[in-house]
Amino acid sequence: MKNKLFKMMVSLLVLTTLISCATIMGKSGPETLNVRSTPDQANVTIIDELGTKIFEGKTPVALPLEKKKGYFKGKKYTVKIQKEGYAEQTVTVDTRLNGWYIGGNIILGGLIGWLIVDPATGAMWTLDSNEINVTLETSKHGAIIEPNKIGVVLLQDVPLSLRDKMVKVSQ
């Protein structure tokens, strides 16, 4: 009986040194980024650290982003949000070390998890932000006229999408 218990304890000890905490407890694949804007239907462009366009679409959107650039290297993204008549906003989404990778491997995972499995799967990384919520402000060069309000703007400051709705008023 003691021999069986001893073998089980040794097996458990060996098993805990071979696992990798971030891969088991975290997520090794892409992570979802939610992008929202006020007003919605703004154009979203996501570019990675190499200058490659990853995504182009409109808000609101939820999309998967890869966290791993390479072995022991996390990804970094630039998210540009723009809408005609509004100032463009740029947000950087970076990766940081996953808490399970740091703490979990110290307690349970061991060197194999820390040096091989989690870096290879990308589970050692997590996005520093899963949500981007921006409120777009009117452009310095233009203006957005709210419905049922009177405003005076230069013709060049009126967005092209609104010019066909303009009515000429004679004196």
Structure description:
With 171 residues, the protein is α+β, with helices and mostly antiparallel strands. The chain has one domain (2-163). 29% of the residues lie in helices and 32% in strands. It has four helices and ten strands. It has a five-stranded antiparallel beta sheet with strand order 3-2-7-8-9. The protein has a three-stranded mixed beta sheet with strand order 4-1-10, with no helix packed on it. The radius of gyration is 25 Å and the shape is rod-shaped. Mean pLDDT is 77; it is low at 16-24.
Features:
10 strands; 4 helices; rod-shaped; single chain; about 170 residues
Task: Annotate the secondary structure layout.
Layout: H1 2-18, H2 21-25, E1 31-38, E2 43-48, E3 53-58, E4 61-65, E5 68-70, E6 73-74, E7 76-82, E8 89-97, H3 99-121, E9 125-127, E10 131-135, H4 160-163
Parallel strand pairs: 1-10
Antiparallel strand pairs: 1-4, 2-3, 2-7, 5-6, 7-8, 8-9
